[in-house]
């Protein structure tokens, strides 16, 4: 099956020469119009921005432009394949940003050797961008880059492998817990994998109400705990993982995945493609009404039907051909829509929690069940509501240059997102997109 998609993808990319393009959004009736859009008229626009740099958000396209920046060190499941090979993935991200969020995203694979070089390039790009989406960067470097870049620039910075996955996971878990009748503060959660996704997921879960001691995190060497032989090395080389080795696992469990899963309520796996990474008997050892999120792609750590056969009540994966797809694409277009529309200076964890709660609420209103705990990407109204929740939270936290209420952003986001979806439909109808 995968071979079919691989072959078709290469053919389509070759036919279209990529997936995105730049289009004018102003009328061009004659060459005289360029006296307004370019010289001599443009000089006055530049003069005004020189006097007040923030006018660049009002008088140029900067307000709606983000850079999708990568060094190509951890691309999908392919690893360190370099910036050129990362380009089609960044371009795909840009396509989703535009279609589902109305955001103009520019693929920016960069050739850098050190984290400081990366930061220099990203920071230098700030005047051109309204936001930055970091993508496909190896761990633990990605943690440092996100933290440091957020300190250095005054535009939203986001790393989708961390924040996007964590937000989507929280949204799905909120509804899964409702179905099984358990509270986030009471459940024990095993996090299989201690990379970018699960480390930020742990952060968000704790901020949402999970008890740190109720989390049990497993990396490739086993369960994290303070007595591990590599704890001193971890403290120096990966302080982000070290933090959770110290603060989680109140029981001080030791061992590997089976020991981490025994008697827990929830498993969130974001490790390596399966099947067989998680075994049926390990699911069977979990508490009653177990929740299993097996999020590795292209093959989940355990097949959903195997987890169900072993007693799991709710199962989610990262795939669209199974129920309950926990997908970053439900999150990043809307988060940036809301952040850009209020000219946010950053993206806070509270904004992510607001997004997760809105996504969960959207699904709940439509009737959640064991095979529908999170909306599908086709339900585009969820992006509108999510953007509104993000914008309202940014405004309440005073990180918005132009504060907006939930209702104000709801109308604004609906107009922008709806317009872009209709635009693609129109271009296809007219044969401009073949």
The CATH topology of the largest domain is Rossmann fold
Low-confidence spans: pLDDT under 50, at least 5 residues?
A: none
- Side by side, the strands of the main sheet go 7-6-5-8-9-10
CATH class of the largest domain: Alpha Beta
Q: Percent of residues in beta strands?
A: 5-15%
- Helix-strand topology string: HHHHEHEHEHEHEHEEHHHEHEHEHHHH
The amount of helix comes to 40-55%
Q: Count every helix, treating DSSP H or I runs of 4 or more residues as helices.
A: 18
Average of the residue pLDDT scores: 95
Give me the count of strands.
10
The largest sheet is:
6 strands, mixed
Description:
This protein is an alpha/beta fold. The protein has helices spanning 2-16, 34-37, 42-51, 56-59, 82-101, 115-124, 141-152, 160-180, 196-208, 231-237, 239-247, 257-261, 280-284, 304-309, 332-341, 349-366, 381-396, 406-429, and strands at 65-70, 104-109, 131-134, 157-159, 189-192, 215-219, 222-223, 266-269, 290-294, 312-317. It folds into 3 domains: 2-155, Malic enzyme, N-terminal domain (Rossmann fold, 3-Layer(aba) Sandwich); 163-317, Rossmann fold (3-Layer(aba) Sandwich); 331-429, no CATH class. The protein contains 18 helices and 10 strands. Helix 5 (82-101) links the parallel strand 1 (65-70) and strand 2. The longest helix is centred in the last third of the chain and has 24 residues, at 406-429. The model has no long low-confidence stretch (mean pLDDT 95).
